[in-house]
């Protein structure tokens, strides 16, 4: 409504209202490094193309004369009602885009009342982002979830899960498609992978277990206990400073402790040997609902149901991991019948506007998440930009729903498509 009223009054919205223009404007504002990292995909980019092609292949068939004057976009996820089925996807190293990054995105999501899934590769400790979210939320608070990358260090896994629980997360998302970082030519060609300069490791450097591992390493290398105890505080303040002044950490990576922190992170952040047996241990390790992110094959969805998981996120990581992979919406079409309402099904990768949200719900998703749209909003307008980017998608979805002749999310079904 606000956007339309502004339009009638001749006011331009703060950020472009369609993805193509949003992306173009954001690119002008972003550094070369940030653009390569955010916009880039795996290999030749054919998975990103497949994501869009799948959305374009499905067409909505509007119905008429069905009183759509009142519409309800809300959905219930894990016992909590959220105002719209659009969540903020977890994004790592977002300080490349904006110095406030995770804190600003957490506030943006809180203002809309929908969850931000804090990334394990976030650039603010989850406790800080959760506190910012609570300050920004209206009465009743706002939800957030936590996304875990399964470390080779099991104690670190438990430590991160414990922190997620204590910081009030409503769900735990375990991302499984990034046991190794994909082949990303846009980053590789400019010789810049984000984490190597210390971006996206705040979840680790704020973790007591990680701190202990780094201290032990530095101590083993230096052969002195006292030195390490004294200088570790400096590492922390460097990391904090790097959030305000990107580059500060990079400049100090020559000194032993920050370098040890980054090297330790690169060594232990992910475990390629992870198997279903590890996933089975999760039940005893957390009271939170658990979702698996990156599911694309119906047999993996079936196994997730057998293991009693609470949800899956059908995703190809925004086309950033496997080049030539199936479009996420195509995967959803075969996976949703397998889950058959037994668990929550979310979808991401390529959601750009309200029609995409509608099509995902029609093919069986309970909700979607978006990544690049909120990052481009963040690049253009900080917290407000991130908020508006997602608010626009929700507003467009609201109109699509009504114009298709429906009044609630639950009514969106396969027969709404051709
Ligand atoms: C991501 N994604 C991601 N996923 C995850 O589980 N943990 C992470 O730390 C990140 N980091 C990350 C950084 C950036 C810059 C992007 C663009 C994406 C993947 C993300 O959660 C989501 O799956 C995709 O972004 C969805 O695709 P779209 O909306 O970007 O097309």
UniProtKB/TrEMBL annotation:
InterPro entries: Aldolase_TIM, Alpha-hydoxy_acid_DH_FMN, FMN-dep_DH, FMN_HAD, FMN_hydac_DH_AS
Pfam name, any one: FMN_dh
FMN hydroxy acid dehydrogenase domain sequence ranges: 11-418
Cofactor(s) this protein cannot do without: FMN
Domain of life: Bacteria
Alphabetically ordered keywords of this record: Oxidoreductase
PANTHER family cross-referenced by the UniProt entry: FMN-DEPENDENT ALPHA-HYDROXY ACID DEHYDROGENASE PB1A11.03 (PTHR10578:SF143), S -2-HYDROXY-ACID OXIDASE-RELATED (PTHR10578)
Family recorded in the similarity comment: Belongs to the FMN-dependent alpha-hydroxy acid dehydrogenase family.
Designated name of the protein: Alpha-hydroxy acid oxidase
Provenance organism: Tomitella cavernea
């Amino acid at each position: 409504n606000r956007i339309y009223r502004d339009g009638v009054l001749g006011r331009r919205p703060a950020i472009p209202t369609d993805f193509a223009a949003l992306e173009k404007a954001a690119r002008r504002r972003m550094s070369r490094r940030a653009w390569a990292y955010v916009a880039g995909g795996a290999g030749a980019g054919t998975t990103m193309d497949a994501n869009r092609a799948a959305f374009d292949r499905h067409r909505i068939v509007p119905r008429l004369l069905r009183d759509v004057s009142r519409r309800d976009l809300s959905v219930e996820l894990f016992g909590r009602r959220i105002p719209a089925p659009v969540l903020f996807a977890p994004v790592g190293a977002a300080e490349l885009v904006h110095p406030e990054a995770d804190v600003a995105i957490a506030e943006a999501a809180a203002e809309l009342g929908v969850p931000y899934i804090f990334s394990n590769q976030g650039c603010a400790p989850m406790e800080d982002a959760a506190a910012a979210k609570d300050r920004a939320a209206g009465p009743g608070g706002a939800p957030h979830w936590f996304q875990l990358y399964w470390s080779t260090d099991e104690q670190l896994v438990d430590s991160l899960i414990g922190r997620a629980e204590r910081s009030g997360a409503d769900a735990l998302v375990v991302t499984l498609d990034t046991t190794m970082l994909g082949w990303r030519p846009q980053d590789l060609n400019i010789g810049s992978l984000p984490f190597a300069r210390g971006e996206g490791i705040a979840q680790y450097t704020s973790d007591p277990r990680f701190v202990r591992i780094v201290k032990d390493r530095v101590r083993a290398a230096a052969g002195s206990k006292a030195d390490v105890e004294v200088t570790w505080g400096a590492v922390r303040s460097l990391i904090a400073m790097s959030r305000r002044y990107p580059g500060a950490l990079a400049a100090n990576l020559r000194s032993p402790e920050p370098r040890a922190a980054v090297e330790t992170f690169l060594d232990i952040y992910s475990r390629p040997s992870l198997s279903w047996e590890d996933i089975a241990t999760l039940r005893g390790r957390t009271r939170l609902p658990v979702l698996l992110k990156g599911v694309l094959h119906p047999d993996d969805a079936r196994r997730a149901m057998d293991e009693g998981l609470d949800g899956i996120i059908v995703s190809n990581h925004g086309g950033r991991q496997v080049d030539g992979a199936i479009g996420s919406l195509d995967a959803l079409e075969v996976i949703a019948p397998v889950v058959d309402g037994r668990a929550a099904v979310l979808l991401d990768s390529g959601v750009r506007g309200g029609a995409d949200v509608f099509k995902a719900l029609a093919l069986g998703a309970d909700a979607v998440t978006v990544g690049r749209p909120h990052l481009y909003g963040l690049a253009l307008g900080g917290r407000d930009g991130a908020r508006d980017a997602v608010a626009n998608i929700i507003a467009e979805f609201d109109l699509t729903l009504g114009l298709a002749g429906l009044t609630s999310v639950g009514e969106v079904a396969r027969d709404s498509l051709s």
